[in-house]
Amino acid sequence: MSKLQALKNFRFPNVFILILVVFISCALLICINFFTIKILSANRAYVNGESHYSKGQKDASRHLITYLFTKNPAQWKLYLEELKVPQGDGIARVTLLKAGDNKIARKGFLTGRNNENDLDDIIWLFENFKNVSFLSKAINEWGQGDQLIFELFVIGQQINAKIKHNILTTEDQKKYLKKISSISDRLTINERNFSNTLGEGTRKIKDLLIITNIFFILVIVCSVCLYYSIMVKRLLVSKKETEVKNENLVIVNRELDRFVYSASHDLRSPITSLKGLIEITALEDDVQQVRNYLQMMHQSLARQDQFISDIIDYSKNKRKQIIMEPVSLKELCNEAILQLMHIENANKIKFTQELLVDNIESDGLRLKIIINNLLSNAIKYADCNKPEMFITIKTYFSEGLNKLEVTDNGIGIHDDYKSKIFDMYFGTNKNKGSGLGLYIVKEAVENIKGDISVFSENNVGSKFIVTIPNSYAV
Ligand code: ADP
């Protein structure tokens, strides 16, 4: 198989699939990065919010303790002010858990001193990821923290009531201080767990993001490389095709030049000899000699006729499309023999036909050209010195193919000429033919994707075997 054929036979994957893969990968990459950045940004906002929550709770505890011991109403106010921060976050958490009004949740988060610009991301993350492991754990810690904030609030109310009624004892102060400290310690644990859980989630998301980014970038790079290599291969194939077409054009051009030169020469030569013969006939008085000249003129014209008919065959073979049709080999052989009977000595030859294959599916025109030329050669190159001249035509089916065999006991082909007989204008006897016959036969055989072989021995005879494929898809 030629390199070009191998390249042509290579099945290219559909490049549109590759372009689609690249587009989808890019789109997914953009989406994944967008949402990951959104999640990470929301996580950061939560950690930020937690620090406000923690600070608020600690400041509230501090102001409550100061109030507990100083009974200064300003401290009570400050305590209430600071306690609002974790309480606001708590309201937002409860509202979002119940899938309540987002406005209330926003208000709660704002009270929790969260930045207004972060609120959308914070609410979005809560709503969409509240059941995802890391956030659900963090929300759980948050809930426990809110419970402790409520306890702090209740203690605050109790302290305030006792101060207001002036019944706060030293014992109470010690008891409340202990309680506030205990709440503060437990809240610190919850707050730390909250931050750690979110931090863990953030790290996991970051790792996932790196992996997915690497994966999609690899998919894109591989697809682009594959696309590039396919395009390069396609370019190579089309370059090779163009080169082959160019080479064929050069060959055809050269052939055409040679053809035109030889055709004009060969068409003129019988005319020249005819003119000469006419001139000498005009001067001749001897009737017998005139008859001889006329015979020679006839031969010249026959040669011209043969040559023109060869040119027509050549042209038909080159231009006409292959048409698959039912063909009778028997009919083609009989027609050819009848047409060729005018050739000198044809009537002295014994024709034998052994046609085991008759009706086949092939190109009628090409088969006619092949049979006519092989038979006309067998007649033209018959050996008149042999006591009995014969031509045998056989058709048979062998190795899955139809075969046509033309055998004669003519003059045979000299070993030196065997390799040249299929060349354009090669002929050993210019009086007998144009040298185009076997060249046209070879082209016709190639057109029907068949094969031709020759076996010949000088002075013994020749055998031409043509292989005709069963059916040839055009
Ligand atoms: P031409 O028109 O000269 O016959 P062909 O191409 O048909 O041209 O044949 C080329 C040459 O091959 C002939 O000149 C002849 O020498 C040789 N040749 C072809 N067929 C036969 C045959 N059956 N017996 C002997 N020689 C043959």
From TrEMBL:
The chain crosses the membrane at residues 12-35, 208-230. It catalyses: ATP + protein L-histidine = ADP + protein N-phospho-L-histidine. Signal peptide: none annotated. GO terms for molecular function: phosphorelay sensor kinase activity. Residues 262-472 form the Histidine kinase domain. Keywords: Kinase, Membrane, Phosphoprotein, Transferase, Transmembrane, Transmembrane helix, Two-component regulatory system. Pfam families: HATPase_c (PF02518), HisKA (PF00512). Its EC number is 2.7.13.3. SUPFAM superfamilies: ATPase domain of HSP90 chaperone/DNA topoisomerase II/histidine kinase (SSF55874), Homodimeric domain of signal transducing histidine kinase (SSF47384). This is histidine kinase. It comes from Flavobacterium anhuiense.
